[in-house]
Design brief:
Number of strands: 8
Number of helices: 8
Strand content: 15-25%
Structural class: alpha/beta
Bound molecules: D-xylitol-5-phosphate, zinc ion
Radius of gyration: 16 Å
Strand order of the largest sheet: 1-8-7-6-5-4-3-2
Length: about 220
């Protein structure tokens, strides 16, 4: 399966956001991970539509929008209009998850479902057919720079096994606390879309990205 790097711009230097995103593209990252926080579903507030619009068209990368927002169905159409290629919503944040996923698809966008570290993986099982991607949070959502929760590895393995059992080759994204030092374990557990904020944007962005890409290729 193709491995994908999704650098999270939450950790970028916003003075030169566009340039930094382009550096990640040059170094091989296929996605831009875009974290939207509403101050309710998670304690922090990040950025939203106007920032996504200005990134849209800047690079050829896939715009991977992670909505940490209560009742995200309210905003799906607008994020789609601003250029989202993938919209991931939290299972815990939706009153009617199936309807929300249908709304994402209606807008012509790929759908993802995310779960917090405390939500059982089995709660995803009724929805395996309904999304293209599943996002296992490996930190409590809300902030960059936290430590990877080791129990996440078992959760990734369980989900990959369930997908394989049903003959489904779908994307498993993992988000939070991933660096060069631990990304191999995450890939070996069965993830193929790797989010990294601090691991890419703190320090030399080109080198950090390129090093990630080498490891990702080794595990394809
Ligand atoms: C956390 C966000 C992450 C965050 C990851 O709630 O969803 O995407 O930016 O940052 P790092 O890689 O620094 O843990
Ligand atoms: Zn995220």
């Amino acid at each position: 399966m193709k491995n994908i790097l999704a650098p999270s711009i939450l950790s970028a230097d916003f003075r030169t956001l566009g340039e930094q995103i382009k550096i990640t593209e040059k170094a091989g990252a296929q996605y831009v991970h875009f974290d939207v926080m509403d101050g309710i579903f998670v304690p922090s507030i990040s950025f939203g539509m106007p920032v996504l619009s200005s990134i849209n068209g800047l690079t050829g990368q896939t715009l991977d929008v992670h909505l940490m927002v209560t009742e995200p169905a309210r905003y799906v159409a607008e994020f789609a209009k601003c250029g989202a290629d993938i919209i991931t919503v939290h299972l815990e944040a939706c009153k009617d998850l199936k309807k929300t996923l249908e709304e994402i698809h209606r807008c012509g966008v790929r759908a993802g479902i995310s779960i917090r570290p405390g939500t059982p993986v089995k709660s995803l099982m009724p929805y395996l057919e309904d999304a293209e991607m599943f996002l296992i949070m490996s930190v409590e959502p809300g902030f960059g720079g936290q430590e990877f929760i080791p129990e996440s590895l078992e959760r990734i393995r369980t989900l990959r096994a369930a997908l394989e059992k049903d003959g489904m080759e779908k994307d498993i994204e993992v988000d939070g606390g991933i660096y060069h030092s631990n990304v191999a374990e995450v890939l070996k557990a069965g993830a193929n879309v790797i989010v990294s904020g601090s691991g890419v944007y703190k320090g030399d962005v080109f080198r950090n990205t390129a090093e990630f890409m080498e490891i990702l290729k080794d595990y394809e």
